[in-house]
Amino acid sequence: MELPGEHPQNRFQRLLSREALQKHFVYKILLGVVLVVAIILMFPHPETIQYDFNVGTVWTDNDLISPFSFPVFKDLQQYEKEKEDALRSVDPVFERIDSIPHSAETRLHDVIQALQSATGLRTRMQKTRKSDDSLAYFQIARAVPFSLTDAEWDVLAKESASRRQFFGSLRETMADNLDEVYRSGVMDQSKSKLGRPELAMRKGSVEEVSSTGKVYDWTEASVLLTGRLDRFFGGVNAGTLNAKIVGSVLAPDLIFDRAATSASAEAALENVPRTVGYVLENERVIGKNERITPDVKLKLESYLKAKAERGSPFNESKHAIGIFLQVIVILALFAMYLFLFRKRIFADNSRLAMIALLIIMETVCAYLSVQWGVSEPAQYLIFVPAASMLFTIMFDSRVGFYATVTIAWLVAGIHGNDYTIALTSLVAGALSAYTVRDLRKRTQIFQSMIFIFIGYAVPMVAFSLEQFDGFRTVAMMLTFAAVNAIISPVLTYGLLIFFERVFHVTTDLTLEELADVNHPLLQELSEKAPGTFHHSQTIGSLAEAAAESIGANSILARVGGYYHDIGKMFKPEYFVENQVGAPSRHNRLRPRMSALIIQSHVKEGIDLARQYGLPESVVAFIPQHHGTTRISYFYDKALKQAAKRPQKENIKEEDFLYPGPKPQTRETAIVMLADSVEASTRSLKEMTVQRLDQSIDNMIKHRFIEGQLDECELTLRDLTHIKEAFLKILIGIHHQRITYPEPEPMPALMESPPPEALEPSMSESPAVSGEQPSAEPPSVEQRTEETSVVSPNDTVPPKNESSSPPGEVPPPT
């Protein structure tokens, strides 16, 4: 929405923002214009120029007298060759930026200063082992624009201890070498890609042509400076430290001026003449029985081209208006359907761009089948079923059907309003969309082949019987239909991967693959953090059931539950579900450090998810399932420790909050609630239906009162259904078990048996008598008591906090 009195520049910047690109109506109009123009260009032109003369043949018609004057154009191949020669004569233009060397010197000073400070703090940290020194070191180390290994830090520490003014000497050495490199110049283009022996360097209005051998490209300069630093270290193996220092400081000062180079190239191209002569009005172009030479052929081609350009502008205008109206009507129906019944798709410009791209691909395929110019029925090689399946998989079956209707009519229009191709494409596309309506495996795509063939074959046979076509014609059409039926699923499979990667589309197929427990990321989680893995599996089951109850995307909710805590695999021993009989490591840490570790699993989880290429819709579960909740256990602990100290310490609550954001979708909100509910019910001592129901109700109310659900679309009715779904699943998990009798004590394995026990009778053998030794499993009360201990990573609000419902045990992090 435009603000009253807004500056035009601010309005333009807001129009270029990512959110505007995704939602703004201006881009929808622009996308529609591009789509309409692209399709109109595919429609056949009313006139087609045919060249039926060749060099060496004889002109058998009467003398050709030109009724108008026209230029004689060069042969196209010769003209293109002359243009290439002109372009090769243009030197690339580079602009020298004098401020770059000064900036590099400033960056060098900052980098060396940060390395010196961090090295000193790291050495002190290793000696004192204090957490304050550790925090100070990590804060200073962040100022270093690159990461160093322990071995590289050790090299810096050793050199600085053994050489006086080591960092000062390092700065001077690097500065001298930088000055030497910048005196020659550093290009921002690789010499191998430049492909030119010379270049033009401009500084203001002065231009100097220089050999590329006298300047450096970035790689050459980097190798040179790294070698100089290696000599400075005197043979000490510094690893990649020197290359990292050079890479953070060195920047090109010769910037390729694309606009100036293009202007020089355009000027060179303008100097290449397009014509080789001129024919005047009433001049003879060629006489009867004359042989056609290359020069005469150029005149004939130029004459026919000029004649076509002099056609009636009124007739061409009518033809263009008719095509425009036809395309607008067909596309408007599809746009109205999306606007009225698929508002989320219509609101998302990236999804509209994907739809437009698919439609353009199909119209290009139709255009190529027309331009093929063969007698075979090439119109049946237009892969409409591929587009139908893609629309259905990426959106839904209704969108797939309406898109099929739209594409079928556009294809028919490009083929001269052919009703036959419209109906056959529509039937085949509709059947292919039906076959992938409930797709769960990618291999199911290939099951559509037989349906596509039937969809083409039935209308083909029907029209052939009406038109009395012969057997050979029908067989040829069925052959093309069979080829289409084979290629369309293969094309769908390949394009589906393309659209998923380029447009970040998360289909149910992708989610089903991610839900497989054999996924490498889940396997790694189960090995490094088995407790977190089983916790995530439970959250996935709870979220899936809750999402189904309110009509949300259940498979997305399940996958989000599986991956929401993957960041815990980096430090699994700091989370209670992975602590088996061992004392908590948080006992040795300050509350603020413990909170940092707990908070870090969110950022580490996001980085890991993107490293494995998880879709952004799944990555969103990692930060949003915590929202902006507080790590209350360590916050309370910090307050208590501060109260006991004689000098009061200022404890900031924001240091113990998760960064958020709050859940933005129904699915992420469901996973947040599932995570909270699972933790609260796990800590119940008496596991009854009433207590489960009360615990779930309290936790959902608590998250609602906190405002964590303010930014998603959950309604109060949805929360009721979610609560009921959680209750059903948790009752199944925490069902009561019978109590087995205590087993009789077994004799010690190392004790010698009495002599009479060495030969037991068959009647006394438990295996024969049917007596089975049994061990009593822990009861429900015992199991819940073992898991009810509040852990350091639980988000527990203080008991005196008014926002906490009575009797509530908040969830773990």
Summed up, what is this model?
The chain has 813 residues and is mainly alpha-helical.
Uncertain ranges: 47-52, 748-813
Radius of gyration: 38 Å
**Oligomerization category of the chains in this entry:** single chain
Mean pLDDT over the residues? 82
| Largest sheet entry | 4 strands, mixed
- Count of helical regions: 34
Strand content: under 5%
Known CATH architecture of the largest domain: Orthogonal Bundle
User: How are the strands of the biggest sheet laid out side by side?
Assistant: 6-5-3-8
What does this 3D model show about the protein?
This protein has 813 residues and is mainly alpha-helical. The chain has three domains: 93-266, no CATH class; 314-505, Arp2/3 complex 21 kDa subunit ARPC3; 510-733, Hypothetical protein af1432, CATH 1.10.3210. Helices cover 59% and strands 5% of the residues. It is built from 34 helices and ten strands. The chain has a four-stranded mixed beta sheet with strand order 6-5-3-8. A two-stranded antiparallel ribbon has the order 1-10. A two-stranded antiparallel ribbon has the order 2-9. Strand 5 (198-203) and strand 6 form a beta hairpin. Helix 17 (384-394) packs parallel to helix 21 (471-502) and helix 20 (449-467) packs antiparallel against helix 21 (471-502). The longest helix has 32 residues, at 471-502. The two termini are 39 Å apart. The model is unreliable at 47-52 and 748-813 (pLDDT under 50).
